[in-house]
Amino acid sequence: MASSSFYHFRRLLILYLITFTFIVPILCYFLPYSKLFKVFHSEKEMLINAKDLNKERLADANAYFNSIDKTESRQFYNQHNQERLDLLVVIVTVQRKSADLQKLGYFLQATAAMDKLLKHNQSFRKKKLVICNVDAKPINHTDVTFLSTFIPTIQRYGPSGRDLSRSTTPLRAALYDKHLHRNRYEKETVDYMFCLESAYHMNSSYILMMEDDAIPHREVLSNVKHVMDTKLHHNSREFGYIKLYYPQKWQGFAFEETRIIELLSIGCMGAGIFVFFLICLLDDRKKSSPFSIQILYFLAGCIYFILIAELLDRQNIMELRRFSPSLYSFKKSPGCCTQAMLYSDHILPSLVNFLQDYARPGMDHTDIAIYKFTLKHNIPCYQIEPNLFHHVGLYTSLVEGRYKDPEGFLFHV
Known about the structure:
By secondary structure, the protein is of the alpha/beta class. It contains 16 helices and 10 strands.
């Protein structure tokens, strides 16, 4: 019995040593957000790589727009002007303050990716892409000037802004016409209000609001349609919005009940696999293993997979869900972030009214205001994981020269 126990212990020890000495470190070397990624890569190296990837995406975006016909593009988006749309995508954009930031081309990348998806994906039949330019000097936003020849464009400080002012309430019209705001949060909220209300008047069942530094995954439209068909329409569930992006740095394993349960579930599922392969398939003596040995393998397997999951971290484990739309997580939405939000059109009038009253000194960010609106009216809102959008805004527009953690910007599209 002692020799048998030593045999099984030695087998487990060898497996642990191979996995955690060679396999996991190699995986961590290539996977951002893994626990060892920053051990292998300095911040300077990550920043250089993130800049290089941004240059590649920008070059691809410019090549894409140079390869398509402007007239055909406008006709594509105008073909359903007199009909109710299935999906309207609105890209909210403002010129970044620094000339160097303009050269990064976030807006061009986001628009190229979404334009390409809408024209090739058939998940939504009647669809449209619109640029919402909220820059105080719209003519100076040169990227919008260029892209407006391909894609319909509305401007807060332009003819479309004046048209909306005539059809909305006097108070909102005054807000939309306002050039000097008390703080940047007020302008951010009024900008979002303008784009939301403009989108509502375009008569679409669903409105996808995305910021100009968010790039969609290739499967975003297919997955959104799958969610609507299986988790919303099938169960007659009303919703306010579905969040399609949440910062990855906050998606790791943490000391929260749901994520602890998730980690333990990974351990238990892995332990079952562990027992099956190491006892049923690899036991060269071809006889039943004692129950105590099976328990040993189960506990060892549980710890084994929990350690692997912790070292790779949740962001990378969730990538396995991309194999099928049915595997995506669909859960209650947190408050943060408006990079990519899918709204149901019926909540937009009351949401715009709420934001109008919320635009005051000392106000919170727009995302928190929207979250408070849903809490006040008890409107269910959801989040899809893993993310269906990338965030490409490495450099913040608030403080010149300041950049965010480059680890989150090391991705290919």
